[in-house]
## 1
Amino acid sequence: MKKYIVLDIYSYVSKNIIDLDQLEDIFHKGINDTKYVVNGYHVERYEQGCELKEKEKVVSNLENKGRSVAFIKECEKVIAVVGYKER
């Protein structure tokens, strides 16, 4: 199994709802398993060409820093953008 280092997390929800440690835990458990869902949250890797709208600037910034990008979603709503690298 691949190991990843989380370098950036941009959360769109209050830490009172879900904090950064929880988001990182969801990322690590779900990045290699597209069927992994916990409390309604799942991880989806970013692929070139997917429609981003308001998240476009964050993704572009992370890619320019050489990071891979994943989204943490609740249903289909992006609640966090994660910048990461493989170890």
Note: Residues 4-86 form one domain.
## 2
Amino acid sequence: MNRLIKTGLLSVALLAAVVVQASNKIIVKAAESKKVEISLSEVVSAETLIIKDVQNIILFSEEVAKGQSFEKTFDFSTIPAGLYFIEVKGAKKVEVTPILITETSAAIVPNSSKKYKSPNISLDDKLAKVFVNNFNEDKVSLVLVNESGQELYTKETKELVSYSALNFEALPSGDYTLYTRIGDYGFEDTITIK
């Protein structure tokens, strides 16, 4: 009976390890030789892999199509020491991993990877409900503009979960754009009112 329980626990542990590995979308490995391995898997929609410096200067950018995987080793020995960012950017999310390059090595900054998601917008007739997850506790800005670029609504918050109800009852039909900025990352959504 003890052996059966141990085997069952081992099976659960192995299954959990496989699930954890399978859920890794981006794997970044840094080595002492100033080389960084990046692999991207489970791409369910087109994404862009970007490497940039602290001044937002893009050093590398590549599109990864839906269903594809990406594996590449980057050699940082020719660039100055400093902080760099690896971004995986999709239409509705951004994943950011900082990399510290020293004179002799490349290292991932521990516990500093962040994920940003675009707002969840649901439209019920002429009422748009906007939820923003802000688990990084960054500053969140919402700006709603009409087709001519006129600002109709603005909000700033640092709440963990932000909710806004946008009532379009008194506004004409058409496309409205909601700009959401979470920390350094922005999302643009179109709300169509009929």
Note: Confidence is low (pLDDT under 50) at residues 1-24.
## 3
Amino acid sequence: MKNIAIIGAGMTGLSLAYNLQEHNITIFDKSWRPGGRVSTRKHDHLLFDHGAHYISLNHNVSQLRGLLKQMNISKEVEINFLINFKENKISKKRIIIGNNGMNSIPNSIYNSLNIKSYFNSKIIKIIKNKNNLFNLYTEKDEYKNFNFVLICIPYIQAKELSSNILNISNNYEPIYDPIYTVMLSYEKNNNIEVDGGLNLNNNISFYMKQNIKFPKLKNENWVINMNSNYTSKNININYKDLENYVQKIFKKSFNIKQLPIFIKAHRWLYAQTKTSYNDLSKKSWINSSDNKVFLTGDWAIGKGLTDAWKAGLKLSHYIKILDI
């Protein structure tokens, strides 16, 4: 049994922890909870899946699909979906969602694992000690003697954290798309025919009603994504200006007669991978020369929740081949 540090409790980190749980796993995350961008936001009695929205039925990660079924932590639902607002053609779309919001998926997986964890703990330094093992440091604490360090945070942050250990080529830099998310709630039902859709206008790429995920909600809640081009061009926009802009578009698009009771913008700087590391290098992780430190994440092979899980699954298989 080896001591393995996993930095990042998103879906890649949880995939690694699940697939390597026969070892002594310690997981670190700067957030207060597992899941990373698979995030459910709560404000008083309001709930919003403002990170990952759903899992596609046609994803090709059989292990994750089996785990969701085995643990009974997700459900398949059918929604009214509008692919293009201008065309106004409503179609039926089947998706997989968490039983209690999308964050309930990683949270349930994490709770099923018997692993040591440190949340609200941002690792800022990794040092190889005199025993050829690794010590990890936060601003206040030191964690000693790890045989392996698996870094599963956004690429730019992972590269910076491992810069004293790995010499990473700049030829294979994955490219991220940033995305603004706006959470919107109305007191009364607006009787909108669709549950979600794409391309509301030139700047809004996605919108989804949250009541299909949280049936007990008394108010009508929506999550709206700005597209990456708009976000990049307005990366430092005043949030109030963005919120007012989105609210006006949504009001006009669906002929809404009431003002929202809650509106809140959030910026995902590393929302999704535009060009993956695998696209550029044909590899699914970055490793040190001694195969003791690894970097991976959704950025390594794709942009979705299932890509994040798959990245951890692929790396766990390789680590097992190393016969650790």
Note: DSSP finds nine helices and 19 strands in the chain.
